[in-house]
Amino acid sequence: MNTSFRRTTIALAAGAALIIPIAGCTADGSESTADPDAPTVMIQVPSLDNSYWADVIKGAEAAAEELGLNSDVQVYGDSVDTQLSQIQQTGSKGVDMAMVFAQDQASSPTLIQAATAEGIFVTNVFSNQPWSTPSEPDYDGHYAGYFLPDNVQDSYNMATSVLEQIDGEGEVLHITGTPGNTTAVERQLGVDQALEEFPGVELVGRESGGESRVGTQPVIEDLLTAHPDIKAVICHNDDSAIAVINALRERGMDDVKVGGIDAIEEFLDDMSAGGNAAATVAIHGSWFGGYNVARLYDAFEGEEYSAAETMMFQDSLTIDTADASDEYQSVVYDADPLPWDWTAMSRALSGDDWDTQIPLRPIDPDEYWGRIDEPAPEGYEVPEALASELADGAVESVSATYLEHAVANPLGSVIGLTRAGESSLGQK
Fold first, then answer.
1. pLDDT (tens digit, 9 = 90+) per residue, 130-141?
2. What whole-number distance in Å separates Cα of residue 74 and Cα of residue 202?
3. What is the CATH number of domain 152-261?
4. pLDDT one-digit tens code per residue, 259-295
5. What are the structural domain ranges in the chain?
6. 167, 418, 126: which is closest to 282 by C-alpha?
7. Would you say domain 5-148+284-409 falls under CATH 3.40.50.2300?
8. What gap in Å lies between CA 397 and CA 116, rounded to an integer?
């Protein structure tokens, strides 16, 4: 029997590329319909050293496969210049759409403008220049969406759980993310909000771990030497948290609680085993990658979304018990295929029966950038379509619609096993 293959290209920052033929199977096990002439989606990530990005790629590729798209994975090695160059080459490479992660806030308009110039559709995740929305006229409809979890709320929830688990007393450390990145700024704000509610907790050290194990290792070693009596370490993400856990193990500091964000398998394994891992935020990397591909597919197919729908928070979940950890791994990581229905996410394919499975909520620019003290530039006005929708109550109305269209959420059994018993957007 002949087997169809989808070409997945993994391009590294140094310029080398791995072209991997992957047997073409859709989520239901049938043969892929993708072919060399099918549209191509670029999946751009900063590194392969972060486990979360591996999950994003996995979901994005699975969605591309089911939607009949070819995928092109680009790794830009945390380099703004490399990232821009990859976008600028999309036209010559036959790329039709791209999911990007702006390396820092300031670079996002340049990246989106480059994609617009190349005539491709683009979604951006996690980092965006303040007061740059997908609705800006300069993007001419090519900016299909800016999506991220509510990092302030998520880091607050995670940090609160960790601090409650040390009974609100003692010295703590904070390992932050990449300076200048929107996500790093927001997550630090959430941690600070949590710390304010625990007067018995003292923050004795705060340094960037570069969002990776390699970057965090020397940082945590120095901090633990300087502060041997800590009760908890709150981390920007789980990869940094794993470096922290390894350092604590080497020193026999078994009682120190560690928090992170991403809910990668290794962190959850430690939580399930009763180790240092205390709390993490599941932001569903595979779902996130796949949903962005589905939204890009809809843009390519001409499906129209309102302005308020192009800038949204996704729902997330703080996992902070061994039972919740076990259940999440069973539902998400042990599932084969992944538990998400990519076709249902697409309005172009599902019509009125579309189902995101995970709820989303529109972002109000005034609230979003106001909370990190980023005032609008002098003379700036929110694009008319977005401003009008927000004035008409789009945050509430669109949120309600997306809640109604998050039908087949496979995480219900996990939510009830967490300490809070609800998700970031209040699902129970």
1. 999 999 999 999
2. 41
3. 3.40.50.2300
4. 999 999 999 999 999 999 999 999 999 999 999 999 9
5. 5-148+284-409, 152-261
6. 418
7. yes
8. 30
